[in-house]
Amino acid sequence: MSADGGTTNAAAPAARTIPGTGVGRRHVLVAVVQNRTGVLNRVASLMRARNFNIESLSVSHTDSVEISRMTITIHGDEFAVEQATKQLYRLIDVLKVQDVTDEPTVQHEFALVKVRATDRNRGEIVSIAEMHRGRIVDLAGDAVIVEATGTEPEVDALIALLRAYGIKEIVRTGAVVMARGSQSIEEAVKR
Amino acid sequence: MTMMKGDPSADRRTHVPDAGTTSAEAVEKARRDMLHEGRVKKRTRIGADVVCEAILRQGVDVLFGYPGGVILPLYDVFGDYPELRHILVRHEQGAAHAADGFARATGRVGVCLGTSGPGATNLVTGIATAQLDSIPLVAITGNVPAALLGKDAFQEIDITGITLPMTKHNYLVRDANELPRVLAEAFHIARTGRPGPVHIDITKDALQQETRAEHPSEEEVIAGLPGFRPTLDGHPRQLRTVAREIANAKRPLILAGHGILIAEAWDELRELAEKASIPVAWTLLGIGAIDETHPLAYGYMGMHGWKHVNRAIQSADLLIALGMRFDDRVTGNVRSYAPHARIVHVDIDPAEIGKNVAIDVPVVGDARHVLRALLPLVAAVDREARASYFEQLAEWRRDSEAASWHGSGMWRNGLLSADFVIDQIGEANHHDATMVADVGQNQMWMARYGGYRRPHSHISSGGLGTMGYAVPTAMGAALGRPDKTTWAVCGDGGFQMTIQELATLVQDRIPVKIALLDNHKLGMIRQWQEIFYDSNFHSSTMVGPDYLKLCEAYGIPAWKATTPEEVRPAVDAANAVDGPALVWFEIASEQNVFPIMPAGKGLSDLIEDWGAET
User: Fold this and answer.
1) What is the pLDDT, as a whole number, of residue B405?
2) B154 assigned to active site
3) Are residues A38 and A99 located together in one domain of the fold?
């Protein structure tokens, strides 16, 4: 059945593109939100309901007690991430959202790694940690806790080396991010 | 049968059953109880007073609810606010739908309330309906005293956790001093920008707590919501682009959505259509955006839309989408949707633009603001300049309308045809009644054959598709617009879902007329099973009661119509009743709604099988 009634040119039209490229990558969003009860729940619930996959989410106070800041890393194509940003803006408590993926930023995370250690290899572990700007924050007879900070790849690299000694447990904060230079997302909100 | 009174809005409180009927005394006693007649107000101001004051400050004078343990402090003060009318529903879902109907019929905020636990969860379906259709609703629930929160107390449930993903915003209030701000914010958020439901959960002790907190001004409310600043005006550069697109288009088509009604932009819509000679198609919730008898009104689009309208979409070179969201029921398979068209999309919610369909010219803004700014930029186009386009549209329309209309009133084998019934209800009410649809086949027949001429004259659960919607929603619509006749049109499936509200209609003398299209089937389910599941019918046949006896038991006048000749007299008789009435239409049980676009297919892939009239 033809629905165009022959009024249009005979050539079959190209299929309408569905929004999005389908090529996903890691994106980092910074969200400045009002520090109200349940705001973390609202953000997390929205991401779940709209089928966005959060890789990491970090929340903290800002210089103002009324405002909190979230760093959200998600995986998706440009369209999906733009949708996520727009949907976040629909939340009453969200003041500003910025995709800083392609901006010049400092992106660091913090990790604690509890590693098996013996009298024989403790020295090696300490020197590996120090070479990666880590430090030992706890020392026990058969284990040490290594504190690591840096970019995600840097923390990944240190953890990979420590794995050889036997990792008992790990905690990572996920990335926190700040734009380089003098611009400030929090000042932008206050204006 | 009683005579029609004068202006029914003059004194709505006098709507009590006629003396001598069985329930008259009971109704009068209930009314006296509610008004606390004889009670002298002498007490301090508590949280419950703040709630009543705040609702009245918003210009709302009717609310729908159901009492329960922790919300009782509110019911304890209602008697002191006789100007606030409380309608006692029979199930909280009915309260939420009624508030929704009030909002849709009036454009104002609807208010419903329920108690904690089951009262609150019963509201959920109605709140979700409002969320999907962008309806301004404030839903208030009580919760257990703050000290018991999280203790799994009697009738405690984390209702704000439940409503969080299905409201525009929600609150849990434990301190009465916060209530003035929260109530004012809730109404502001519910009606501003893209409207939606706001839920407020209030602990019992907050309702009972003494407070002197004052109500904030609108300015203070706005200042307190820095994250909520909807964009009303379209970007001037984008508006110039839209004007250029219209000037270049040969086969433009306007897609009018719910946003036209919400923004009250129907005059501007008509002006744009007339100035640039652009036909107007509409979505389910956009019905009423333009008078269907207007020469440029073209028809209802989508899965069960008119074939000529879907053809026009598929052949258009420019779609001007105003306040609609390219729902899957509108587009079908996006890849084959409007393959020749560039798309202009105007919506107040930036998240809707580009969500489902890639957009060529996005405009974020309120439909009325945008159209007012756009109109002077648009070059006038004479209808003659589009003569061949309009000829083609008229030809498609003649074909499609002739094929899909059972003008004799009969479907096959002499059985009553649903399209005819809907048409007759519209005609009998001079197309001025508020018509509330249920969900399923009846809803699609309503959308196609109602013949709507004014905004807010058609109400339907579009996004959520909530069966059982029509009767409770019509209660709110009737109370919101007492100057209009209100008809609830349902199938026998949906009617039996919220049938208990018949008692509410009687107790509060709400003049809702009910058209029951009884095919003894879940008609749309039966239709899908026939077409898409190889006639493997299961659970789509329904036994119902004798509806005349049922209505007699409730004290509601009722008529039955089984032939085309009986339709109009029954409708007229129901209209002549001063109060609720029902007409039971026994319609063909195997009549399908055509055309139908199969799920996953495109607008060019419509299935039709009209059969022969007998």
Assistant:
1) 87
2) yes
3) yes
Provide the domain count of chain A.
2
| B181-222 tens-digit pLDDT | 999 999 999 999 999 999 999 999 999 999 999 999 999 999
Rounded to 5°, angle at Cα B302 from B449 and B254: 90
Confidence band of A18 (pLDDT split at 50, 70, 90) = confident
Select from A103, A134, A168 the last residue of a domain.
A103
Question: Any idea what the Cα angle at residue B424 is, between residues B421 and B426, rounded to 5°?
Answer: 115
* DSSP 8-state assignment for residue B7: -
Q: Which residue has the higher pLDDT, B7 or B433?
A: B433
**Are B66 and B500 contacting, i.e. CB atoms less than 8 angstroms apart?**
no
The residue range of the domain holding A129 is 106-177
What is the complex's ipTM, to 2 decimals? Answer: 0.87
Q: Name the band, by pLDDT with cuts 50, 70 and 90, for residue B6.
A: very low
User: Angle between the A39-49 and A78-90 helix axes, to the nearest 10 degrees?
Assistant: 140
Phi first, then psi: give them for residue B343, nearest 5 degrees.
Answer: -125, 125
Show residues of chain A in contact with B336, CB under 8 Å: 15-16
Report the run of H or E that residue A161 belongs to, with start and end. helix A152-162
Nearest Cα to B93, choosing from B496, B479, B498, B465?
A: B498
The answer to whether the peptide bond before residue B595 is cis (omega within 30 degrees of 0) is yes
A46 touches B at CB < 8 Å:
yes
CATH number for position A119 = 3.30.70.1150
Cβ contacts (< 8 Å) between B399 and chain A: which residues? none
Catalytic residue chosen out of the listed positions B151, B154, B210, B250 = B154
Reply yes or no on whether B92 is catalytic. Answer: yes
In a domain, A58, yes or no: yes
The pLDDT value recorded for residue A8 is 44
Hey, how many other C-beta atoms are within 10 angstroms of the C-beta on A122?
Answer: 18
Cβ separation B396–A17 shorter than 8 A: no
- Phi, psi dihedral angles at B335 (to 5 degrees): -65, -35
With CA atoms as reference, the chain A residue closest to B358 would be A19
Pick from B177, B173, B178: which is nearest to B159 by CA? B173
The topology (CATH level 3) of B44-223 is: Rossmann fold (3.40.50)
CA–CA distance, B469 with B54 (Å, rounded to integer): 28
DSSP 8-state assignment for residue B357: S
Question: Is A10 at the interface with chain B, CB within 8 A?
Answer: no
Same domain, A50 and A120: no
Cα-based distances in Å from B51 to A68, A77, B127, B208, B370: 30, 46, 19, 11, 36
Residues ≥6 apart with Cβ < 8 Å to B411: B417, B418, B587, B588, B591, B611, B613, B614
Q: For B388, which residue in chain A has the nearest alpha carbon? A: A7
Q: Structure pTM? A: 0.91
- Is the pLDDT reported for residue B330 higher than 80? yes
| Structure-token pair, residue B51 | 């709630």
User: What is the per-residue pLDDT for A7?
Assistant: 43
Superfamily of domain B405-586: Thiamin diphosphate (ThDP)-binding fold, Pyr/PP domains (3.40.50.970)
Contacts A–B by Cβ distance under 8 A: 90
**Cα-trace Rg, chain B:** 25
Q: How do the domains of chain B map onto residue ranges?
A: 44-223, 236-398, 405-586
Q: Which CATH architecture has domain B236-398?
A: 3-Layer(aba) Sandwich (3.40)
Question: How far is B319 from B603, CA to CA, in rounded Å?
Answer: 15
Confidence category of residue B1, pLDDT binned at 50, 70, 90? very low
- Indicate whether A17 belongs to any domain: no
